[in-house]
């Protein structure tokens, strides 16, 4: 049997990460709904907008997405999965190319990044909408194995925009 590095990554790992991410995003949506985003955001200073708990949590999530793009193997949820979860499961039977999940992390980063910038610019509901969109994508992956960012990657690959070379190592 070929080693895991040559055939791809354990397909359950990204779903595990998506489950944790969706939980964090759900909390963020709640915080945003009761915070500045849903209220008088224009009256708040930039410092007050940056200190909003929903903003801070979404910023932390954005940094986790960035980590997942730059170094997916050392990202916290990947390490937690490999060290604490995977040893308790049966050997993986399904492997996947690591490029689509990595691209999906980038899409998540872009979505929440736009929400963060628009929140600082006092755009009402921007943070709520960005966090909710990211939550839907993460939840679909965690609950049903439907990775929207991965599907976008494959579509872009078909039309020749991204990755025609062999899969990169995780």
From TrEMBL:
Top-level taxon: Bacteria
Boundaries of every DUF4395 domain copy: 9-158
Stretches that traverse the bilayer: 16-42, 54-72, 107-127, 133-156
A Pfam short name: DUF4395
Record key words, sorted: Membrane, Transmembrane, Transmembrane helix
Matching InterPro entries: DUF4395
Keyword Membrane belongs to the record: yes
Name used for this protein in its record: DUF4395 domain-containing protein
Organism field: Microbacterium awajiense
Origin organism lineage: Bacteria, Bacillati, Actinomycetota, Actinomycetes, Micrococcales
């Amino acid at each position: 049997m070929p080693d895991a590095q040559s055939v791809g990554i354990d397909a359950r790992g990204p779903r595990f990460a998506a489950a944790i991410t969706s939980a964090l995003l759900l909390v963020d949506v709640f915080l945003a709904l009761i915070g500045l985003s849903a209220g008088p955001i224009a009256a708040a200073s930039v410092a007050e907008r940056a200190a909003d708990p929903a903003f801070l949590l979404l910023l932390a999530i954005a940094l986790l997405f960035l980590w997942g793009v730059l170094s997916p193997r050392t990202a916290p949820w990947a390490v937690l999965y490999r060290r604490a979860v995977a040893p308790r499961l049966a050997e993986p039977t399904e492997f996947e190319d690591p490029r689509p999940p990595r691209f999906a992390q980038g899409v998540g980063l872009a979505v929440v990044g736009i929400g963060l910038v628009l929140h600082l610019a006092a755009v009402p509901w921007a943070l709520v909408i960005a966090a909710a969109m990211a939550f839907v994508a993460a939840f679909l992956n965690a609950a049903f194995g439907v990775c929207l960012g991965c599907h976008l990657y494959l579509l872009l690959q078909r039309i020749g925009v991204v990755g025609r070379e062999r899969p990169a190592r995780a």
